[in-house]
Automatic annotation (TrEMBL):
One GO molecular-function entry: NADH dehydrogenase (ubiquinone) activity
A Pfam family assignment: Complex1_30kDa
Limits of the NADH:ubiquinone oxidoreductase 30kDa subunit domain: 24-142
Protein name per Swiss-Prot or TrEMBL: NADH-quinone oxidoreductase subunit C
Species: Nonomuraea diastatica
């Protein structure tokens, strides 16, 4: 399988194997060609999932997992898009199951899938601003409402004295209540 991918894409694809799983990395221009090739030529007809990975400071990684039910083999397919212009061709024409996953990735990361038939918000309430799975997204709920349980030594009323209060992970300094 790896040899056939390398034969087809040459230096345009990086094929790696780890623990029996094959991962293929391509440029965004080769994304649809790779998906079509593994479906039609390698028999990976089952589309499992697609998601994004925030990879600061410059890129988003788009990851798809496909499966060949006859050979019982799976592939992890990846590409990177720049944060400044996060566009990637839609895979819906190759795998219809990519529809929901691309909508979710668009909503959670802001990656735009060009040619998607209905790229609209899927999970978040109307009027929601931002992309909550991006690493620079401030999770306001971490600051707005304190954790109900003791989280520092001494906060339970007995034991060692409390340490200096710190902001929760993902909250920039100077954001939130002044005592945080």
């Amino acid at each position: 399988m790896s040899a056939r991918i390398a034969e087809r894409f040459g230096g345009r694809a990086e094929v790696t194997e780890s623990y029996g799983d094959v991962t293929v990395d391509v440029a965004p221009d080769d994304w649809i060609e790779l998906l079509t090739f593994v479906r039609d030529e390698l028999g990976h007809t089952f589309f499992d999932w697609l998601t994004g990975v925030d990879d600061p400071p410059d890129t988003f990684q788009i990851v798809a997992h496909v499966y060949n039910p006859d050979a019982r083999t799976r592939l992890l397919l990846r590409t990177r898009v720049p944060r400044a212009d996060p566009h990637l061709p839609s895979a819906v024409d190759v795998y219809r199951g990519a529809n929901w996953h691309e909508r979710e990735t668009y909503e959670m990361f802001g990656v735009i899938f060009d040619g998607h038939p209905h790229l609209v918000p899927l999970l978040l309430p109307d009027g929601f601003e931002g992309h909550p799975l991006c690493k620079d997204f401030v999770l306001a709920a971490r600051v707005a409402k304190a954790w109900p349980g003791a989280k520092e030594p001494g906060e339970s009323g007995h034991g060692a004295p409390s340490r200096r209060k710190t902001l929760p992970p993902g909250v920039p300094a100077g954001w939130g209540p002044p005592d945080a």
